[in-house]
Input
Amino acid sequence: MGVRVQSEDFDVGAEMAALRRGNPNIGAIASFVGLVRDMNEGADVSTMSLEHYPGMTEKALEEIVEEAKRRWNVYEVLVIHRVGELRPLDQIVLVATTSAHRGEAFASCEFVMDYLKTKAPFWKREETPQGARWVDARESDDHAAERWQEVEQHGE
Amino acid sequence: MTVTVLYFARLREAFGLSTEQIELPQAIHDISSLTRWLRERGGVWDAELAETRTVRAAVNQVMAAGDTVIKNGDEIAFFPPVTGG
Output
């Protein structure tokens, strides 16, 4: 459980096993793994580097985890995000949530991922045959995060 | 007052600078006035911090808006929209 920002890879199976160990109340685990693709915006990507804001990154992720726990009845929320040099096929991020039932596990996992995309201070830089470039933020990510604000407003 | 200013990603690269301590004139009291003041350095500062570029700011590691007040000793950061995940 918790938030980890690290350069090392992670073992999804081991992390999921640790997350549910010893808690018979858990009936569902939802997880999301983000990966480095070899193609983005029509260019071959040979390597990617992930920069972040040490200190703020951890705070922002912890705040997102707390928000997920306020909104849904979840037991554990785990976020692991890698930084530094990565290559196509590499794992970038793992989000896993545990709950009694699948609905809250699915929803909270997607929420954490959507908020991470727009609120956690990470920046991707890609190496391509045309040179290095900073990845642009996507409007679709803003819209994905905004959906959860609408959910909140309707719920009040 | 003196503040620490951090730059990340595209801004860090363009300015050739990741952090600096700045002694601010009294008129600088929030993120908007600090941004305008930094733009007066001209060149890449004026270009990268222009209103047409989307730049985010944080004060003491919390996302900030233009009217967020800054105080002596604050840690202020400027960066492009985030692209993690």
Summary: The CA atoms of residues 57 and 78 of chain B lie 5 Å apart.
